[in-house]
Design brief:
By secondary structure, the chain is α+β, with helices and mostly antiparallel strands. It has ten helices and eight strands. A hairpin with a 2-residue loop joins strand 4 and strand 5 (63-66). It starts with a helix and ends with a helix. Residues 73-80 have low confidence and may be disordered.
């Protein structure tokens, strides 16, 4: 049984009972359910580096937690700076992912079935409560507005007024300062667009994609199938936790360079 068939056969029917619909694109499987104000998602993606491995994340609004963190098997939380310091090369990055158990490994059809059934159990017994406890505030305006020509023209006017250049990743430091200031207007959408454009401009391209009219992704960063970020999520995480957007970019820059050097 291949992975897609296993997910469709074992996982999808059980998550459908919880109100989740399935969207499948390349090596990413997204289960989502909508409410009037937000969307809950369970995302699985298949590794490009490990032969039989998937990751699972539970996402609502700007909050995200991994399968293992939700099961409280891994309490360590590192800042982007701490992670960056660890990654001397691509091998270090992969080792970090393995040691922190982000990847869930399986060996054959039987072990894959057990893994998917465990994801069902965690979704029912722990994720539903986590979704309820972390219901987000409503986004100020729909994220789909970012893809409109009118918004993008307005955003670039904002960038120019504040000397933010998408060609210069260090301007993310200045964006952080703007986000921490008391302002009369909410700039989260402009910040989301700027972060994504910095990635797209400096890391070899990327494609803006709106999923289910809720989640806005920058995908295929650097031309890599699994190269994707959800910029709005990281703007919200910066506002909540102060995690550096520039350091986050630098980690991706290092990763893209390492991937390029291995080809």
């Amino acid at each position: 049984m291949n992975l897609t068939k296993a997910i469709q056969t074992l996982l999808a029917p059980e998550l459908k009972k919880l109100g989740f619909a399935l969207e499948h694109e390349r090596k990413i499987w997204t289960f989502y359910r909508d409410s009037p104000e937000h969307q809950d998602r369970i995302e699985l993606d298949q590794s490009d580096w490990y032969p039989h491995a998937i990751r699972v994340y539970f996402i609502t609004g700007s909050k995200m937690i991994s399968y293992h963190d939700l099961r409280k098997e891994n309490q360590a939380v590192l800042t982007w700076e701490e992670i960056s310091d660890r990654f001397a090369n691509l091998e270090d990055l992969l080792e970090f992912a393995a040691l922190n158990q982000e990847w869930l490994h399986y060996e054959d059809e039987a072990s894959l079935e057990r893994l998917l059934l465990s994801i069902v159990a965690v979704s029912k017994n722990e994720a539903l409560a986590w979704f309820e406890q972390n219901q987000p505030e409503a986004c100020p305006i729909p994220l789909s507005a970012i893809l409109t020509e009118a918004f993008q023209e307005s955003a670039y006017t904002f960038f120019s007024a504040h000397h933010l250049k998408v060609e210069d990743p260090s301007c993310l430091n200045q964006l952080e300062q703007l986000l921490t200031q008391d302002r009369a207007s909410d700039i989260r959408l402009e910040a989301t667009f700027f972060l994504g454009e910095v990635f797209r401009t400096n890391l070899g391209g990327g494609v803006w994609t709106l999923k289910n009219n809720r989640a806005l992704w920058l995908e295929r960063i650097g031309g890599y199938e699994n190269g994707k970020i959800e910029p709005y999520l990281f703007i919200e995480q910066f506002k909540a936790n102060g995690e550096s957007l520039y350091e986050y970019y630098q980690i991706w820059e290092d990763l893209i360079q390492q991937l390029g050097s291995t080809q």
